[in-house]
Amino acid sequence: MKQTIFLFRHNRRKFLKDVSLAFGATAMGLPMASFASSCQSSGSDKENTQVEQTGQDNGQNRKLGIALVGLGNYATNQLAPALQETEHCYLAGIVTGTPSKAETWKRKYKIPEKNIYNYETYDQIADNPDIDIIYIVLPNGMHAEYTVRGARAKKHIISEKPMATSVADCQRMIEACKENKVKLSIGYRLHFEPHHQRVMELGQQQVYGPVQRIEAEDSFVIGGSPDRWRLDKELAGGGPLMDLGIYCVQGAIYTMGKTPVAVTAKFGEVTRPDFFDEVEQSINWQMEFADGAMANCTTSYNKNQNLLYGKAEKGWWRLQPSFGYSGIQGETSEGPMNLPNVNQQARQMDDFALCILDDREIPVPGEMGLRDVRILESIYEAARTGNRVEIKV
Ligand code: NAD
């Protein structure tokens, strides 16, 4: 046992060292990482003991078991493949309402029958020691219910972005995790991506002096059928702002290392009324920071664009494309960034597993998700009323 613990510790340290060597002083050490988690565990010894009893042992290390809830596009094409590369967690279980998907996943990922649930049997996950973490990858309007139920099952939770479709739901999720002494994180994968970590450093450490202006856009042309959940107000919470604009909000905030104090906003024209009868087709907004810096942001479901740009007193930087799973390119006023593209989701999930194993602060906690949903609500209010809306976070 002693040897196992030693190897576990050794591997963990090696991982952290590799990360910091590869990317310099990054997100973990910057102000954005200082979000205090409200979901403190009851103690690291207890949690490590639990992990040693329940996690997968590959002979060298303990891995935490993750169950993915909702086997749609993101779970299928990004998270499950990423879980084949993680060092500190693995795909232990699934929750799906589609029996044929359960069969396919069971065979493909060798998931034992006892770790496969549907939405009716979901709560029984409480009795399954193989599952340490529940990862909610359902439509936005379902994140709150499945997080609360998952927390009651005493499992740590990752909820996809946006955390929920209302501030009240975000608060419910945080509360449930606190009460049940489990940790809560949001699927903010870009905090673990080297180009974005560089932007945090450039902006927050004022490498080129104070930031004056940020430009951010995340847009794509939505296809498929008009009755998809992303266009349904109840399930999505809103249109591209909830889905994509959240990356612009995040990008501006982690460039600055602080939250904006006020927003103004304007909905764009609706040119496809068959698609956009419940949610916006596009929206432009401005975020004002206390020191006078401004972020001009756009998101649309009717064009393709992907940009995070920052201008400081003595230099600038640009990520373009900026928010994708791979292919991010960065340059500064001094030249190309020359940073690697990595498996963002693998890093994100490994970091959460280490937060649990080490009982340390989560860099992307529920409180950050709540803050962002509050800002999204303020942007909608500004667009609806035409007023400048102050943000109180
Ligand atoms: P998707 O439509 O591909 O998958 C949704 C899944 O939920 C499907 O398996 C579907 O069967 C299931 N589901 C259960 N109940 C449903 C209902 N009532 N209506 C519709 N579907 C229902 O969506 P997705 O693209 O995988 O997105 C899922 C979540 O992941 C969203 O919250 C989204 O914002 C988030 N996401 C995050 C990223 C990221 O980069 N972090 C990328 C894509 C999606």
TrEMBL record:
The keyword Oxidoreductase applies. Residues 196-305 form the GFO/IDH/MocA-like oxidoreductase domain. Keywords: Oxidoreductase, Signal. Residues 65-188 form the Gfo/Idh/MocA-like oxidoreductase N-terminal domain. Residues 1-36 form the signal peptide. The keyword Ligase does not apply. Residues 39-58 are annotated as: Disordered. Gene3D superfamilies: Dihydrodipicolinate Reductase, domain 2, NAD(P)-binding Rossmann-like Domain. This is Gfo/Idh/MocA family oxidoreductase. It comes from Pontibacter anaerobius.
